[in-house]
Amino acid sequence: MGNRKNTTFVVKIMNEQNESWQGSVTLAETNETKYFRSALELLHMMEEVIEKAQ
Fold this sequence. Notes:
Layout: E1 9-17, E2 20-27, E3 32-36, H1 39-53
């Protein structure tokens, strides 16, 4: 494993509909918030941030 920066996400689940979560995710390091409509969308958002940080 190479040098990897720590990434901290604050996830707020605001609703559960269609058997999935809706809410917001905030990147603690930049205080940037995005909203997601499903758990899968949340994971994709987090993955993008982690890949950029490497």
